[in-house]
Design goal:
The complex is a heterodimer of chains A (about 110) and B (about 120). With about 110 residues, chain A is an all-beta fold. Chain A is built from no helices and nine strands. Chain A is globular and about 40 Å long. In chain B, strands 2, 4, 5, 6, 9, 10 and 11 form a seven-stranded mixed beta sheet that branches. In chain B, strand 4 (about 30-35) and strand 5 form a beta hairpin. The chains are: A mainly beta (about 110), B mainly beta (about 120).
């Protein structure tokens, strides 16, 4: 199981782009990278998932370099409602429903 | 709203007691996973149920047990409660495990906040 390392917290302002980098030096060939968002007193919510290069959806972008030892979640033009904890998970797609989450990155967006 | 519901929302118990938490999965999902989230930490995988059978377990003692019913709803039972069991308990429903494809099909409920005194 690839261990992940993320910053504990990040501060930003409304309208800015927020980039959260996750390190996963021991990622295995078949591992996928998945990001979740969690608001207080709610369960985590899937944001984005990728294997290599770049993935974009209506919420975020995920950048994965060629060596896949890290990944960066990019949140464009954040708003106050993006204040949350963001988790990076790495594991086998077929087995990753059983993954435990790390401590995550607390992102605080200020007006 | 994910369609996953949990009950009760909050619960207070004392050490040594037993507790049962309930989860109704999203329509069409036959897999339920349970997680424990202590304050300030990420969710930790307890176990998963697929078609009424346990399908994987995390690093939790046997006093944490579960059930899945024919309608795919699930229960988490914890015996001999300890103070450290105080946490938010989350369940997540998903499609068939190992089906491949994007992971976004795991949907979490709002959780049950358990306080053990």
């Amino acid at each position: 199981l690839a261990k992940t390392t993320q910053p504990i917290s990040m501060d930003s302002y409304e309208g800015q782009e927020v980039n959260i980098t996750c390190s996963h030096n021991n990622i295995a060939t078949n591992d996928y990278i998945t990001w979740y968002q969690q608001f207080p007193s709610q369960g985590p919510r899937f944001i984005i998932q990728g294997y290599k290069t770049k993935v974009t959806n209506e919420v975020a972008s995920l950048f994965i370099p060629a060596d896949r030892k890290s990944s960066t979640l990019s949140l464009p033009r954040v708003s106050l409602s993006d204040t949350a904890v963001y988790y990076c998970l790495v594991g086998l797609l077929s087995n990753d429903y059983k993954l435990s989450f790390g401590a995550g990155t607390t992102v605080t967006v200020r007006a | 709203e994910t369609g996953v519901t949990q009950s009760p929302t909050h619960l207070i118990k004392t050490r040594g007691q037993q507790v049962t938490l309930r989860c109704s999965s999203q329509s069409g999902h036959n897999t339920v996973s349970w997680y424990q989230q202590a304050l300030g930490q990420g969710p930790q995988f307890i176990f998963q149920y697929y078609r009424e059978e346990e399908n994987g377990r995390g690093n939790f003692p046997p006093r944490f047990s579960g059930l899945q019913f024919p309608n795919y709803s699930s229960e988490l039972n914890v015996n001999a409660l300890e103070l450290d069991d105080s946490a938010l308990y989350l369940c997540a429903s998903s499609g068939r495990p190992g089906a491949g494809g994007p992971r976004e099909t795991q949907y979490f409920g709002p959780g049950t906040r358990l306080l053990v005194l």
